[in-house]
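quick one before i forget lol
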Amino acid sequence: MKTASTGRGKLKAVAFDMDGLMFDTEPVYWKSAEELLRRRGKVYTQEICDLTMGRPPKYCFDLYIEHYGLTEDWLSLQQESERYFIEFLAEGYDAMPGALELLDALERRGIPRCVCTSSAWRVASETLKKGGAIDKVAFVLTCDDVTKGKPDPEVYLTAAKRLGVEPSELLVLEDSVAGCAAANAAGAVCCMLRAEHNKNVDFSGAAAVVERLDAPEIWNFLGE
């Protein structure tokens, strides 16, 4: 595990990414994208997956349109993909290691927390409800709540304001390069979760990299 000192003292609040960070839903996204493209005679690839990880829907589906030569608009592709996602989500998915334990521990200690995801509200709410986490956070920000998605810092700047802390007092938990860039651009402290879906990603911009969300490094940032 990589660790680094922020030099900023105790952080006061935590913002969670969702997909691949709180819950192991990256396989669900893969299946929904694969189904969307299969119906058009196209093949979803790891290259496209890597390029879209952590990015908002418009970016992802505009990329599909350009790369695969699709003729539909991005919104219709998003709506169809969301239908597949929710269908596949019903088959079941797991929480990422330590995620629910960390949420419960933060709640016991009275540390403010929220979710900042690039997913749309329909997808985010379904994922968080089924995963038993939606009542464990103060609020959820999705791509519907910002004008610019990750790697733009807007979502984390908005989160810090709503949590009542300075961006420099916010610990961001992420699993994608786009998310890490957004946190850093906001002036927050970013801790990355290393997992199977991002094992080859360069996380050199993170203040720490952990393999579980209940790792002691996270509590070090929070002064515990």
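fyi The beta strands are 13-16, 113-116, 140-141, 170-174, 189-193, 208-210.
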